[in-house]
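Task: encode each sequence below as structure tokens.

Item 1
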Amino acid sequence: MSRHYDKSLDNRLAAIEGHVRAVRQMLTEDKECEDILLQLSAIQGSLEKLGKIILKDHLNNCVKEGIQRGDTQVLERFNQVLDKYL
């Protein structure tokens, strides 16, 4: 288990998985496009929220610890992650 594991994160991922399954079902059932788009918007919002939580945790823990250990590359790696994430 990762040291970053948190039951609330697992619950968020489970909810996102449920939303994705719902979209698949909506598509196979030929549901209204508007309803599908709203569901997709909810998924995107949930993913963005999860990403922010993990990003903050990374900054407040991993990056901070790296700086304290004297890891001179930690900020460069953090900036690379930000460039890919944002």
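Item 2
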Amino acid sequence: MGRTIKRLIEKTGQFFSLRIRSKKEELDRLKHIFNMLDEGIILIDDNQFIIYCNPIALGFIGLESFNGPIALTDFKDKTLSNLFIEVIQSKKDCDWNEVKFFNRYYKVDLRIHFEEKLLVFFDITDERKYQNYKTELIGNLSHELRTPLSMIMGYAETLSSEKEMPVETSRRFINKILEHSIHINGIIRDVLELQKIDFIGDQFEVDFPVIVKNIIKDIQVRFSGESEKELLFNVDVEELYLLYDHFFSILTNLIENAIKYSKGKKIHISIYKQDRNITIQVEDEGPLIPNAEKTRIFERFYTVSKSRNIYKSGTGLGLPIVKHITQLYHGKIDLSEGKFHGNLFKVSLIEKI
């Protein structure tokens, strides 16, 4: 009997050992899955301690590592602390559609299973920024289109009602309608350009290089007859691994900006490369953009002529387009005074190979 009981105890111990080992393997597999998720996962026990936190959740809640149970009441950030207080008080599943802490926005779901609570964090910062961008873009676009459309309607109504209008006056009104129509067309063109850039995003590949001399020819054709300013190119590279549309857009918008806002007769364009680092420079001959304007010229729909209405106004989207494309190539754009005492825009890019 004693031996039988001893064997039974041994078998029972082996059984529980297998159960524990199996549970640990399942837990390890579960942790491996959680570690691969883009969502933050936090598991809370019945004593309101965090007993598991996957790596991405560590970053969300401001921790460098997880070395054991952490009390929910230990967090200093006020918004995060208030969220955990709500979690402690919650007796059923619930959701928080938008919570902000550490300058990012999250959707948080709480699921309760027996005495344990599972928190899932979804980072919605980029979605929120995009929604804000769309709202701001629509608002700005409506504002920018309202004035030229009102002018076109006013001139058109006057032309329609004044049958005996002098020829010179009617011609002037028609020219004004054409001028405002061109401005509206430019705004729509640039908005579509921004939309195309946003749609492609940074998930693109460059399968073959752009031949620089070919794009220079296209640029010269593009500006032929548009301005009396001379375009001077200084190029020491034959090909670049950029998308044609991106390269053309950078050059076109920087040159257009120089044509509209500079009084000099020449625009100097330099393109060169060292290793994978590309530099594109466009310099005019002045006058200089005021220091107060330099921090704002890359804002969408902002134009220097809004504060100094002495030059032909642009759409206010050219330089933001250049900045946006530059960021796709992990680069930057700088503005400084050039050797011709004008504005020097320097774009630095990294080839996409």
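Check on item 2: The chain is about 50% helix and 20% strand. Residues 323 and 333 are 7 Å apart (CA to CA).
End of task.
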